[in-house]
C-alpha cells in the first residue's frame, strides 16, 4: 500500500483539534483510527495494477535528430474504475535533456472493461537501439488517500538510424554523374570507359577519338564518345577501432565516416555500380553484401545504426585480408579511417601493397578544423605555441597522406561537414578518368 500526500496531510491536521476536545491519547487514536479505516477502504477500492493489459504500437525506427511516437494501449480488465498515474520509462538518451519529459508521464482514468491510448514522443540523441524499460502504474482510490503500485514490462525497440545529413549534396553530384554518363557532355577516354556512340567532330575534341572509318562513310568528321563502364564493385570499409571514437567538434569520427559512406553508396548505386559495406576493427562488426541498387541504402543504414567504436587498435592485417575476401575481383576499396601517423605507419602501410596490387584504394579521413584555427593563431604567446603545435600536426598529417599517395592511394582529408562531398567528388574523378 502506498499512502498519498493527501493522506499524510489529513493525518497531521486531524490530530490537532483532538487535544482541545478531549485531552489525552484516546481521542487522538480514535481520530487516527477513523482515518486509517478510510485509507484502507480507499486502497481496497483502487483498481488492481496486476490485471492491467498493455500493448504497444508505433514507430520502430527514426533518424537521429527526428521524433518517434510510440503508442501504449492500456486495458482495464477489472471491475473497478482505474484512476492512475503512469510512467513509460525509456533510456536517458531517448530525449535531448537526458531526462524524461512530462510527455512520458500520463494521468489516466479508465472505466471498468475499457481501454485508453497513450502516446510517448521520443527524440533520441544517439544512434542505436532504444528499448522500452518498465511501465510503472500507481492506481489511486476514489478518495485519493491510498494507491496500489506495480510495474509491467512491455517490450518495444526503436532503432535510431544515422541522419544522412549529406543527402543535400546528392542532387549536384548526380548532375555531374549525368555529365560523365554522356547525357550532357562528351567524355574522355580512359581505362575504365567504354564506347558509347558517334557524333560530329567539334573544335576542341581529342583528335585521338576521331573514327576514321566512320568519317570515310559520311560527309563530316565523326568522333567517338565514351562513357564510364557500369557494374563496377565498390567496397566501403569502416574502421571501427579506437580512432573512430574521437570527436571532432560535436561529431564522432565514426558518424562522419558513416555519412560519407551513405552519400557514396547513393551516388555509386545510381551510377550502376555495386556497393558493399564492411565495418571492422579486430573482427567484422557489420557487413552488407549483394544488395540491389534500391535496397543498398536501407540495408546500410540499418547495419550502421547499432555500430559503436571499439576501444581497441584496429588489426590492419585482418582488415586487409577481410577486404580481399569480400572483393575477389577488381574493386574500388574505400577505407574510412584516421590519418594518425602511428596506426597508418605501423598498421596499414605494411599491408597496403596487398590491396593496391589488386584494387584501386581510397582513404577518407576526418580532419579537425580546430587544428587549422590553431595553426593560424597569432597575437599572444599562448597563441604562438598553439600555432606551432597546429602546424606540426598538419605537417605530420601531410606526411602520412604523402606516404599513402606514393602507394597509389587516393587520399581525401576533410572536415566532418566536407568529408562526404569530398569522397563523392573523388569517386567521380576516378570514374571520369577510367581508373575504377
UniProtKB/TrEMBL annotation:
Matching Pfam families: DUF58 (PF01882)
InterPro entries: DUF58
Domain DUF58: 198-374
The name this protein goes by in its record: DUF58 domain-containing protein
Amino acid at each position: 500500500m502506498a499512502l498519498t500526500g493527501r493522506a499524510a496531510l489529513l493525518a497531521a491536521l486531524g490530530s490537532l483539534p483532538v487535544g482541545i476536545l478531549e485531552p489525552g491519547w484516546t481521542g487522538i487514536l480514535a481520530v487516527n483510527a477513523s482515518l486509517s479505516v478510510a485509507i484502507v477502504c480507499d486502497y481496497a477500492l483502487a483498481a488492481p495494477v496486476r490485471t492491467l493489459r498493455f500493448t504497444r504500437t508505433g514507430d520502430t525506427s527514426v533518424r537521429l535528430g527526428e521524433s518517434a511516437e510510440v503508442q501504449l494501449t492500456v486495458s482495464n480488465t477489472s471491475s473497478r474504475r482505474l484512476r492512475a498515474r503512469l510512467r513509460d520509462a525509456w533510456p536517458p538518451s531517448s530525449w535531448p535533456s537526458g531526462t524524461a519529459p512530462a510527455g512520458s508521464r500520463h494521468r489516466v482514468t479508465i472505466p471498468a472493461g475499457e481501454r485508453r491510448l497513450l502516446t510517448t514522443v521520443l527524440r533520441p540523441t544517439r544512434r542505436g537501439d532504444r528499448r522500452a524499460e518498465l511501465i510503472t502504474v500507481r492506481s489511486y482510490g476514489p478518495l485519493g488517500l491510498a494507491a496500489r503500485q506495480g510495474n509491467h514490462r512491455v517490450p518495444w525497440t526503436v532503432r535510431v538510424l544515422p541522419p544522412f545529413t549529406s543527402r543535400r549534396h546528392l542532387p549536384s553530384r548526380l548532375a555531374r554523374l549525368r555529365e560523365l554518363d554522356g547525357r550532357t557532355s562528351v567524355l574522355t577516354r580512359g581505362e575504365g570507359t567504354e564506347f558509347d556512340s558517334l557524333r560530329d567532330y567539334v573544335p576542341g575534341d581529342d583528335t585521338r577519338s576521331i573514327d576514321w572509318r566512320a568519317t570515310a562513310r559520311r560527309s563530316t568528321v565523326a568522333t567517338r564518345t565514351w562513357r564510364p563502364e557500369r557494374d563496377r564493385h565498390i567496397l566501403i570499409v569502416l574502421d571501427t577501432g579506437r580512432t573512430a571514437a574521437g570527436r571532432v567538434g560535436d561529431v564522432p569520427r565514426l558518424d562522419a565516416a558513416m555519412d560519407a559512406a551513405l552519400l557514396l553508396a547513393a551516388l555509386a548505386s545510381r551510377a550502376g555500380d555495386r556497393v558493399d559495406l564492411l565495418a571492422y576493427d579486430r573482427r567484422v562488426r557489420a557487413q552488407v553484401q549483394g544488395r540491389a541498387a534500391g535496397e543498398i541504402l536501407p540495408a546500410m543504414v540499418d547495419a550502421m545504426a547499432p555500430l559503436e567504436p571499439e576501444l581497441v587498435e584496429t588489426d590492419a592485417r585482418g582488415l586487409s585480408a577481410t577486404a580481399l575476401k569480400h572483393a575477389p575481383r577488381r574493386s574500388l576499396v574505400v577505407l574510412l579511417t584516421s590519418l594518425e601517423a602511428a596506426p597508418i605507419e605501423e598498421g596499414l602501410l605494411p599491408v597496403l601493397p596487398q590491396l593496391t596490387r589488386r584494387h584501386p584504394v581510397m582513404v577518407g579521413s576526418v580532419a579537425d578544423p580546430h587544428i587549422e584555427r590553431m595553426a593560424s593563431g597569432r597575437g599572444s604567446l599562448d597563441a604562438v605555441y598553439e600555432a606551432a603545435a597546429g602546424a606540426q600536426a598538419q605537417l605530420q598529417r601531410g606526411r602520412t597522406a604523402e606516404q599513402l599517395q606514393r602507394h597509389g592511394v587516393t587520399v581525401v582529408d576533410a572536415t566532418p561537414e566536407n568529408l562526404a562531398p569530398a569522397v563523392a567528388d573523388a569517386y567521380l574523378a576516378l570514374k571520369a578518368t577510367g581508373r575504377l
